[in-house]
Target: Casein kinase II subunit beta
Amino acid sequence: MAISRIPKRRSSHSLMTDTESSDDSEKLHKSWIASFLEQPSSDWFAEVPESFASDGFNTYGLSVDQSYAKSAFIQLLGSGQDSSDDSFDSDSEDEIEKTTEKIFGLIHSRYIFTPDGVHQMYLKYKCGIFGNCPRYKCGQQHLLPVGLSDHPGKETVKLYCPSCKQLYEADEMHQDLDGAFFSKSFPHYLLNEMKLKKLNANADPMLTSESLDGKFWR
Model:
């Protein structure tokens, strides 16, 4: 009579190694943009496709430090795990990371004017992702992020209320975001698009980023 052999129990060390290996593998295949958007303070950003970020037309004339621009673009469009060169010291790697974030932010400020970008930001606005106006008379009016300058490093992001038309400071989690990443004119652009489509508090249109007229709803 054959005796079945009891499978050898794997040690916790072996399990941990496999788990860590799986996590490392996932990180290797995750893009820098995907990793950046997973951060809690990145929920105000639209998801910019790599195809948009890699198009030279969309990145022309960006105001970034040219010393690290090439490495930053490689990091932005490549793997989020390790795109640094051995020739860079830790300070240079920090600068590359900062430049990558700046490039993404400036690309984002352009992307949110595209049909799909407006669509994403409208959904965030509709859901109150950016917060509500603190004024009682505004009735919890949803806010929109806005920059006071289109030049990076000048001003942090503010919040605009379409009801009282006042500006407010961002919450603690988002208060250090660069206002240039959201543009000076985006709130007014979005509100104008909504006005053109005759949107109001009682209307709830079917949204799409692929409508025939190129808008983000129909």
